[in-house]
Design brief:
The chain is about 70% helix and about 0% strand. With about 250 residues, it is an all-alpha fold. The chain has one domain: Heme oxygenase-like (Heme Oxygenase, Chain A), CATH 1.20.910.10. α3 packs antiparallel against α4, α7 packs antiparallel against α8 and α7 packs antiparallel against α11.
């Protein structure tokens, strides 16, 4: 006997519960960062490795759009690429992230070169791009729903950085401030799209697993940072070493 699907309301609550349990705001690295307990080099390591994730967001969105035959979905989705790439040089989330890099004392060209990325960061982020490129559209969209939980972490980050770190100012935290308005717009569309199309129990289970996968991609990146730069501080060969790439 085929299991009955959850109601729309219960399914949405199920997706939100995944964030309560698994989103990376619960990771000790973020708790350390937001409370001011990261050293300058730990902050730099986070900025360098998170850049790789930021740089791949428009690439995964372009890969997604290349498979979409519905013009309405493409129109709704393409703003995500513009949010990160901007409409002109020096605009968009990636450019704002490089301002953060400069603020913490890193050469933006070094960061943009992607030299020194932790192997686990690269593997996790590339796996996410492949997932969005290759899995059914429903699962690709569902994996983006970590944005449901992003506004809180951005608000906590803004407050924590401004309180605890000298580098924090309107320019260096501008990426996070923009995401306070961009992420809710994106997720309102994405959530409705998933809720409308996950009409069977199998669809709903698969969408939930896709969201869990994305939380694991984010968590794995922080695990890698913790292992390499916090404790036991084992930096893999080829990864960024403190003192490299500074202004």
């Amino acid at each position: 006997m085929t299991a009955r699907p959850d109601t729309r309301e219960f399914f949405e609550a199920r997706l939100r519960a995944i964030g309560e349990e698994r989103y990376h705001d619960r990771h000790p690295f973020h708790q350390r960062l937001h409370s001011g307990d990261c050293t300058p080099d730990q902050v730099r390591a986070w900025v360098i490795n998170r850049y790789y994730y930021q740089s791949r967001i428009p690439m995964k969105d372009a890969a997604f759009m290349s498979r979409v035959s519905d013009p309405a979905l493409r129109r709704a989705w393409r703003s995500r690429i513009e949010d990160h790439d901007g409409r002109a040089p020096g605009e968009g989330g990636i450019a704002r992230w490089l301002k953060l890099a400069e603020g913490v004392g890193l050469d933006p060209d070094y960061v943009a070169s992607e030299v020194g990325i932790l192997p686990a960061t690269r593997f996790a982020v590339d796996a996410y791009v492949r997932f969005v490129r290759d899995e059914p559209l429903l699962l690709a969209v569902a994996s983006s729903l970590t944005e449901l939980f992003a506004p809180k972490i951005h608000a906590d980050r803004i407050a924590g950085l401004l309180k605890h770190y000298e580098f924090a100012n309107e320019t260096t935290i501008s990426y996070f401030k923009h995401r306070l308005t961009e992420a809710p717009q994106d997720v309102a569309f994405g959530l409705a799209w998933v809720l409308d199309r996950a009409v069977t129990k199998a669809d709903q289970d698969a969408a939930a697993r896709a969201l869990i996968f994305k939380t694991e991609v984010l968590w794995a990146q922080l695990d890698a940072l913790w292992s390499a730069y916090v404790e036991p501080s084992r930096i893999p060969p080829g990864a960024w070493q403190p003192g490299e790439g500074l202004l």
